[in-house]
Each structure stands twice: as structure tokens, then as C-alpha cells.
Amino acid sequence: MRRFFWICMILILVNIALPAAEYEIHLNWDEFGGECNGFISGNIGKKTAFVNGVADSQVFEGKLISLGEGRSNKAKQVFQINSDEGYFTFWIKDKFADDDMMSDPSLIAQSKPKISIFKDGNLLDLIKIPAGEGLACKVFTLDADIGEIDREIRFYPKSRIILGRVVSATTGEALSGANIELVDYYQDSQSFVTGEDGVFIFPVEVTEYNLSVGKNGFIGNSRKVQMGIDEIPREVILALSPMIKEFRIVLTWGSRPRDLDAHLSGPKPEGGNFHIWYRNKMLIGGKDFLDRDDTNKYGPETITIYKPATGNYNFSVFDYSNRSRKHSKKLSRAGARVDVYGQNKLLASFQIPEDVRGNCWHVFQINEQHKIIPINKVDYVDDERNIR
């Protein structure tokens, strides 16, 4: 009996010390095609950390684990996520992608990676990487708060890069001839002039950068971009406004959610009030204030107050993609940014608050004295018609 008691106690202690993984991710590939390395970057609350598949490591107090390469007979690399909260992104990199030893962008696809995702031992998804070129590949994101897997298979030239596109805020078309300068913490700089596709790419190191862009006939802009220790690509959309004296409001965001809607409410020149967004277009003083709507990620979505009237204007951003999800954090994770132009210059910029729940970002107000009053609050709105 005494021996049986101690065996039971040992089993109990083992179960306490090694809880079953809520999520387990297996990465396999064909070694004759190339060498892969899995990588998970995660956020829990406002904390950020990562693990890679080669090393045996854990972060977030054991909530995100890499078992290390070759440590399991289940797969070449195995990862565990023991959390019912947080946001995790799974990547595959070529093992030599950032060592300047490997420049063949087809090796990840040639190695035919397969990613199996389990929850409590049950297979949730099996992802096979299709043909593509790049030394880094974003595969999926996991929203552990709601248990949702979002496939987003995208190849990148390398991992330690800042890349993006310069477009017109009023048309969304690529801008060629835009001058871009990237300055790091030590004041070393790189410059680039965009071609017809408006695309730019800068190889970078782990530090903070200031990215500035200018083009004749357009109002210049700049922003901070941080290459973190996770060394995953940073994407930036730069929507430049043509010179304008009136207020112009430009919304940009990342690849998710796909559809954010800009909302503006305020006074009509002829009396009364209006509330416009894509699904409620109207002429105000004979003008359409909504210059451009975007329903397929990134933006820009642009509103111009062509005929200002006396009264207060309120600008908000609504997450149409997740409109019915009261507790969603996807809007706060969108990387959304609002730039306000006027008097032929940039007047104000707003970045969405991080790690908050809600589907509506109340950004700012323009008061009767034409002053921009920050609001910067995210909450839940049950019907977009009620946004004010």
C-alpha cells in the first residue's frame, strides 16, 4: 500500500509539473529540399516574446515552449502553447536566411514544409506550404483568446527587413519617385527612390528607425519603426496626401482585419447633421467627403472635409470584419494609424491603443475652433449606425 501511495504521488506531481499542452504545433519538412526553422512570436497582454524551433526554450513562464529540434519523435520541431489568452504568429525561416550564406529564395518551398496544429490532442489544421519565393514565410496566427487560427501564407525576401509601399491617399495607386530615408538610432541612414510599384525594402538590424518619405506635390510624412529581437519583417503602408488646405483624414492598417471602415459625423453647411461611411454615402454641400474606401486590408481609407461648417466633427474607425465580436482584440492588433492633414502639412497622427477589446476606435474630434481634440478610445458598438 505504501509503495502504491508513493507511485500515485509521483504521478500527481508529474502532472502538475508538466501540464498537457493546450496547443501543440508540429513542423516537418523534406531535408533534401532545404533546411527550415520554425519560429513563434507571441504577445500576452503587453508582453512580447518568441521561441525558435532549433533551441529548447520557453517564455511567458512556460506558456510558450519550443521542445528543440530532434527532441520529439512526433516531428522535426515541436512547439507548445499553454495559454488561453494571447496572440501568436508562426513563421518558417530558412536557417541561413540572415547570415548572407543563402540567397536561393525557393528553398523553403522546395523543402515542402507541413505544419500540424493540435488542441488538447485533436488535430485542428494541417497546413502545407505552397510554391513561393522568399527566405521567410508567415504561416498563420493563433488568437488564443477565442481559439481562432487565421492562415496567412506570405513569403518575404528575408526576415530582418522593413518593407512597404508608398501610395496616394486619394486613389490608393502606387507612387513612383517618392524619396524615402531610413535613419537608425546611431544616425546612420539609408535612402531609396520608389519605382512604378511604390515598393521599398531596407535590410536592418535590431534597433529603432525613423522612416520619412516625401514627393513633389504631396505632403511628407514620417514614423518610427522598431526591428525587435524577434527579427520578423516589419511592414509599413505610407499613404501620402496631395497638398490640401482643408482637413483630410487618412486611415491605414495592416493585413488583418481585412475591412476597417472610417466614420465621420458632423454638421452640414445647409443645416442638420450627417454621418458618413462606406455604407452610408451622401453628398454634403454637393461634395462626396469619402475619397476612398478599402475593403481588402492595408487601406488607405480617406475622408476629406471639403466644406467645413460650424460645429464639431467626430472621426471613428469601425472593425467591420469583426463587427459582432464584443470581446475581440483584432482591431487593437491591426496596427491602425490615422493621419490628419490640412494647411498643406501633417497636423496630427494617432496610433490605435494596443491590447484592448472592442470593435470601434473613437479617434478624435475637430471642434468649432478647428482644433483637433484627441479621444483615442476603443469600445464596442452594437450597430455602426450608432457611431458618433
Topology:
Layout: H1 2-17, E1 23-28, E2 36-44, E3 47-52, E4 56-59, E5 64-67, E6 77-81, E7 87-94, H2 107-110, E8 114-119, E9 122-128, E10 136-143, E11 148-156, E12 161-168, E13 179-184, E14 189-193, E15 199-203, E16 208-214, E17 221-226, E18 234-240, E19 247-252, E20 260-267, E21 273-276, E22 283-284, E23 287-288, E24 290-292, E25 301-305, E26 313-319, E27 337-342, E28 345-351, E29 360-366, E30 372-379
Parallel strand pairs: 12-18
Antiparallel strand pairs: 1-6, 1-8, 2-3, 2-7, 4-5, 5-6, 7-10, 8-9, 10-11, 12-15, 13-14, 13-16, 16-17, 19-25, 19-27, 20-21, 20-26, 22-23, 24-25, 26-29, 27-28, 29-30
* CA-atom Rg in angstroms: 24 Å
> Ranges with pLDDT <50 over ≥5 residues?
4-20
Quickly count the domains. Answer: 3
Q: What is the CATH architecture descriptor of the largest domain?
A: Sandwich
Strand content: over 45%
The percent of residues in helical segments reads under 10%
Q: Output the number of helix runs.
A: 2
Largest sheet: 6 strands, antiparallel
The end-to-end span amounts to: 71 Å
Count of DSSP E strands? 30
Strand order of the largest sheet: 4-5-6-1-8-9
CATH superfamily of the largest domain: sav2460 like domains
CATH class of the largest domain, please?
Answer: Mainly Beta
Provide mean pLDDT, rounded.
91
Shape: globular
Structural class: mainly beta
- In CATH, the topology of the largest domain is named Lipoxygenase-1
